[in-house]
Amino acid sequence: MHRLTYLDVGYGDILSTLPDSIGECASLKELWAGNNRIHTLPSTLCSCKNLEVLQVYGNDLKEIPSGIGDLKALRVLNIGRNQITHIPDSLGECQNLTELQAYENDLRTVPASVANLPNIKVGNCYGNPKLGLPPREKVREGVVATLRYYSSVNV
């Protein structure tokens, strides 16, 4: 498993957990586990220091590991269509993150640290009823302004 760079277990609608041993995949760059029934991500996932793409949309997740900030190589995080209520502030430590897909969850706010990520290009938080819709002028100002608006919402 040390040489595994790409793992796709998505669209099975049968997987309810990822094994703790996922953290042993030192070379893993992409993990696609969308459209399953995963209810929790093992904290050991945060040991995958080379992980660049994490696609866990369409599951039953309520949270993401607080150690997510340890994934310094992370560029794309898709946690859409889950029941996540908050994003750990540590995600702001993922300085290479360019895309955050957090649509259709139960988010109440977005950490300011995420809005301050230097390379963020996509920040999709639509469909989070408690966040509501950002004012049109914030959307026109771009991703950073929109994420900053969401970070000011605290329900």
TrEMBL record:
Annotated keywords: Leucine-rich repeat, Repeat
Listed GO CC annotations: cytoplasm
Organism domain of life: Eukaryota
InterPro entries for the chain: Leu-rich_rpt, Leu-rich_rpt_typical-subtyp, LRR_dom_sf, LRR_domain-containing
PROSITE patterns from the UniProt entry: LRR
Pfam families on file: LRR_1 (PF00560), LRR_8 (PF13855)
Electron transport recorded as keyword: no
Xref: Gene3D superfamilies: Ribonuclease Inhibitor
Protein name per the record: Uncharacterized protein
Organism in which the protein naturally occurs: Rhodosorus marinus
